[in-house]
Structures are given as structure tokens and as C-alpha cells.
Design brief:
mainly beta
Length: 123
């Protein structure tokens, strides 16, 4: 499975961005997808995840209430809608594929990763 993240950019605090994770090859609809973010000198941190079907979602405490993850299996794409962005949300965001869904928060269990997309939130 190949993953490609896109949609990052520069936005002011309080603004919104929608990230996309496009999957190809293999059977991406059989994987749960997670979004992680990374800042310099730090490990990737879990942000949000969604199960294979799309009816169960998972969020970090910092994302809960501001971010929404969704998927369209017909398009093999997972979205991360990020609202009310904060300066501390600045990071490189990457998507990964994992199965089964119970590992969605665990970075080390992921089978595939896409290249990241930079999100920069200015004050």
C-alpha cells in the first residue's frame, strides 16, 4: 500500500485546513488509517485514526473537538479536517496504515507510511 499525504500549508491561528491521505496499491480499504505529526527532535505523535469501515474514530486529547477524521473508501482517501488551529499544531503530518484497528494509536505497529505534509500555524 502506498500513501500520499497532501493539503498542508500556512494558516493563521484559528483557521482551518483539510489534509488528505490518498492510498493506492494493495487493499487499502482493509487497513485502519492514522494521522501522526512530528516536530523537530520528537517522535511522531498520534493525532487521529479511523477504522477500516469508517465508523469508529480515535483522537488525541489535543485533537478531540477540533479535528475530524473521515474516509471515502470508494476514493481510497482519508481526510483530516482541522479547525481552530493553534500555533502548537505546527508540525509535519503523516498518514499511516495499520491493521487491525486496535493498534491505530501505536506508531510501532504501522505497516505503511506516506510522506508528510507540512502544516504551519502562525500567530
Amino acid at each position: 500500500v502506498q500513501l500520499q499525504a497532501s493539503g498542508g500549508g500556512l494558516v493563521q491561528a484559528g483557521g482551518s485546513l483539510r489534509l488528505s491521505c490518498a492510498a493506492s496499491g494493495g487493499t487499502p480499504s482493509t487497513y485502519s488509517i492514522g494521522w501522526f505529526r512530528q516536530t523537530p527532535g520528537n517522535q511522531r505523535q498520534f493525532v487521529a485514526g479511523i477504522d477500516e469501515i469508517g465508523d469508529t474514530t480515535f483522537y488525541s486529547d489535543s485533537a478531540q473537538g477540533r479535528f475530524t477524521i473521515s474516509r471515502d473508501n470508494a476514493k481510497n482517501t482519508v481526510y483530516l479536517q482541522m479547525n481552530n488551529l493553534k500555533v502548537e499544531d505546527t508540525a509535519i503530518y503523516s498518514c499511516g496504515a495499520v491493521r487491525p484497528w486496535r493498534w491505530v494509536r501505536v506508531r510501532s505497529k504501522y505497516d505503511y507510511w506516506g510522506q508528510g505534509t507540512q502544516v504551519t500555524v502562525s500567530s
